[in-house]
Design brief:
about 60 residues, mainly beta, 4-stranded antiparallel sheet, 1 helix, about 5% helix
Length: about 60
């Protein structure tokens, strides 16, 4: 497991998924990065089973398309 801190934008509504080992939150985030002096967008898939993070699903900014 990799722990990471970053600031980004939620791309889609977070999904709460029932897995075989319990619930987890899954969402895609867009993170600004710089490569060769230019700003580029990196896409990061975030998944967490932390009980505090599961509550974030109700605060998602948009509906999934």
């Amino acid at each position: 497991m990799i722990y990471s801190n970053f600031t980004g934008r939620v791309a889609k509504k977070a999904k709460l998924i029932d897995g075989v080992n319990g619930q987890f939150l899954s969402m895609d985030m867009a993170v600004n990065d710089y490569s060769k002096g230019e700003e580029v967008t990196q896409w990061v898939r975030v998944q967490s089973s932390d009980p505090a993070h599961l509550k974030l699903q109700s605060f998602s900014p948009r509906d999934a398309s």
